[in-house]
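Notes, Module 5: Reading structure tokens.

Key idea: the token line is not a picture. It is a compressed description, and you learn to read it the same way you learned to read a sequence, by spotting repeated patterns. We will look at two proteins. The first is printed below with its tokens.
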Amino acid sequence: MKKGITVFLSFAIVFLFSVQVNACTLFAATGDEWVQGGGSLIAKNRDEKPSKQYVKVVSPDNGYRYFGLFVDSNNGELRGGINEKGLVVICSSASTLAADVKTEDQKNRFRSDYGVTDEYIISKCATVKDALALDKSIWAGAQNIMLADKDEIACVEIGPDGSIAVKETMNGTLNHTNHYVYEDMVWANVKPYPESVTRYERSGQLLAETSHPFIMEDFIAFCNDKNAGVHDSIYRDGENNSSQTLATMVYDLPKIGTASVYMKVRENPEDKGKEKVYRYSLDEIFKK
């Protein structure tokens, strides 16, 4: 991983400009050493230009029910959620692709023959192991998908050619942003994105240097970190119509007992500073 980051940083320095693209920060921890009481924690900040979004429960005809954050465009696609079995699926787009590849990828909207990748996984899989055992053709779209259940966490980098690189652990941490960091996938970093590297390194620093085992409130605090200013921080205030943090989601998946969900969501573009906060147990979500 260090080799991959070094290659990307060197590549980014060559280019003296940055790009405004969609951005997200993902991180997770699992195991007794890292999460108080055991189990897992996983979080995502969704960063994009202001747009309408909402939370809801989906009850598929053939699959597990799930609760998540959805965007108003692109047929209401999922941007992160948890299913009734306690599996969390969150994602970030790969924003370092060549322009023509990125345009084509956006047209496909991360779809395989099975449908939108993260929506298929969250409706069909009960555990991380279930997801990682799926046919490789399901992993579509140039993106990074992070998974968690009460026993383990994993991150899958999906390349523009459909290749994948996977990292998983039952005792440790993972973090990701919007460029490829795994050694087998760094070749796909074509356009520089220094701000993604800044968020990646900061989230890794917070995980490594903050006293642990962690609780949910620690992850909420990480999501609110603003140490690199309005454009480059994990929590991005942004300006005008620039990319900014529109939602925070944190999931606590204990070894024993029901999972807990925290979501802070700007439902309408004009609601900056008036975000809604949702706190539910998994039991409450699916009993209502």
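Here is the second protein, with the sequence above and the tokens below, as before.
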Amino acid sequence: MHTLIFFIIAISILVSIHEFGHFWVARKMGVKVLRFSIGFGKIIWSYQKQPGATEYVISAIPLGGYVKMVDEREAEVAPEDLPYAFNRQPLWPRIAIVSAGPLFNLLLAVFLFWLSLVIGENGIKPIIGSIEQGSLAASAGFTEGEEIIAINGKTTPTWTEAIGTLISAALDNGQAIDIEVKDLQGRESRHQLKVSEEDTQDPDTLYKNLGLKPWTPKLKPKIGKILPQSAAAEAGLQQGDLILSADGTVLDDWTQWVEYVKNRPEVTIRLVIDRQDVQIPVDITPKRVEADGKVEGKIGAAVLVPEDLLKSITVKYALSPLPAIPAAFAKTWDYSSTTLKMMGKMLAGRASIENLSGPISIAQFAGQSASIGLVAFLKFLGLVSVSLGVLNLLPIPVLDGGHLVFFFIEGIKGSPVSEKIQLMFQQAGMALLVTLMVLAMFMDIGRLFR
């Protein structure tokens, strides 16, 4: 229910802004709007100020929406409404009305990123942990303990910002990525990272090939947060429990315990724990989980991180309102260009279709980001709003971009494209979109089973 509720909230906001863009500009251009609908299907709520005014509607299926304007191509129009029909407007007003939906989505993304930057968030400092041998990071000369300061001149105060910026920059194949770092003594230096096209098939492959991992301090095997209905909860473990040994093996740090659990799915482990200076024997059976094609054991518990250590490796990242404006525009531009690049790579067969996400994945991300906090949810909304804006500007018939292509042709030839040709291309565009939707759903279902 949590996932479903936040998915509906996210889609409703994004669709409302998109359709409001069409609606607002249409009204400004003198086009009569008959209906403004959020959702499809059966109407569950409607409001109309007076007969002949715009009808505002909420429908049962919240996966889209539409703005119905007076248009002779769709229905018979009363003589008094002909001057307000969409199809009778000059070319530029029609272009403005069709462009408004995607542009409002991009402007919404700017606002959401601006708001998230002003609110700010706590993040882990981009301190590099152990470097994998043979990785791109090892070839570039990175060493453990270095902190990433900037990538291609862009400041990266948190690990999330650093990795996101790095992956975005890596899509520009053939260009070396300039990375500024500082060591434990505060001395600054630079590394150049070269990424080949084979490394950018999908973000997971790229991340693995980079070989960069955040620095993790050595922590005692002390239990922190416990997930409900997990193996840890069923075994009766409590926050603050210190694991002394497992099957007689003395445990020194949390990483050692994690590896021990991973290798023993559905195998009972005999623990000795220290709870308030009392040693207690506990039996725990890690649950079987499949991850990256491997079967692993999981107990559903996190390590307890000392408060002073947590403060030393985290940073509060926020901007004041004015500097946040260009930063928000830059972030929207970065996400837009990255989205277009990945679409181009997938069409050319140079990127995996694993990058496609359907409604199931989007719903999961909505729930997960909302669980993290307000800023994470705002950033998720901004990212999806960018995707929605960019997708709708693609030159595919039935999408806004397809209509803009017809308008472009009309501007060149001096007359509209015939309705017969438009209908033919729209049917082809609809078939393409349905195919993409089915493929995205197929990828979503595959992820669920994995």
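Summary for the second protein:
- The chain is about 45% helix and 20% strand.
- The longest strand covers residues 33-48.
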